[in-house]
Design a protein that fits this description.
single chain; 5 helices; twelve-stranded mixed β-sheet; about 250 residues; alpha+beta
């Protein structure tokens, strides 16, 4: 379960965390991605204190409120949302740390051969959380953008990003500390299981103008710096709050 959550969290952040490596935005920014049939499949909205990623095909959204330090997972199919607060994330890290300490204690009591076998099995499981980042050296032309393909593999999932220079897309570089907090939170949770597990994602630079994943091919259709209406980040009042993803208790 934890591996599944961490894997999906990492993949879900890829489109935004590639922006973090060299930029954050004083101005608002909206990125729209189209599927192969030409329909808009996904959008990302980035403001000074909020980030929203929406999958229009799956009808799900992820909203990061940087002031509240809170993440909301919204399911528009069921009209339900779940929150993950900083307290929830701290509780998760403590639980994971406790589990790892307990496992270490149990392993220390095993005969050497059994301990080695168990450590090998655990190592393979934890190793699957380590993203494998490969610069394929492949060059493409996506719309008006020249881009280079980077492959990211996490567990059994593979995503390819064709990355264009930030300046080519039109994003203005600036201080990126607020957005980087999102990435660092996920990385800190993963590091409980494997120190530095997500460090390789820090080396990815550029804006994804094509994303190839299990969801298909999505190309950047438009980039806008127009002001984002505040209600874009508001969860509809009729949506019900579900149980926390990682309850503190």
């Amino acid at each position: 379960m934890i591996r599944h959550i961490l894997r999906n969290s990492c993949l879900g952040l890829l489109a935004c965390t590639t922006l973090m490596s060299a930029t954050t935005l004083y101005a608002d920014a909206t990125l729209s991605y189209t599927a192969t049939n030409g329909s808009v499949a996904a959008r990302s909205w980035i403001s000074a204190d909020k980030v929203k990623m929406e999958d229009l095909e799956k009808k799900t959204s992820v909203i990061y409120d940087l002031k509240k330090d809170e993440i909301a997972i919204v399911d528009h199919n069921t009209k339900e949302y779940r929150l993950m607060t900083k307290t929830d994330r701290e509780a998760l890290k403590q639980k994971l740390g406790g589990v790892m300490s307990q496992l270490e204690s149990q392993l220390s009591q095993l005969p050497p051969e059994q301990r080695a076998m168990m450590e090998s099995m655990m190592g393979n499981t934890v190793q699957s959380l380590q993203p494998k980042v490969t610069n394929t050296q492949q060059k493409l032309k996506v719309g008006k953008y020249d881009c280079s393909v980077t492959r990211i593999e996490i567990s059994n999932s593979k995503t390819e990003l064709c990355l264009a220079p930030i300046s080519a897309v039109g994003i203005k570089p600036n201080d990126y500390e607020s957005l980087q907090r999102i990435q660092s939170e996920i990385a800190e949770i993963a590091s409980v299981l494997k120190p530095g597990a997500l460090n390789s994602l820090n080396d990815i630079e550029g804006v994804p103008v094509r994303i190839i994943s299990e969801d298909g091919v999505r190309d950047l259709q438009s980039f806008s710096e127009a002001s984002i209406a505040p209600d874009v980040f508001v969860i509809p009042a009729e949506y019900k709050q579900g149980e926390p993803l990682f309850p503190a208790q």
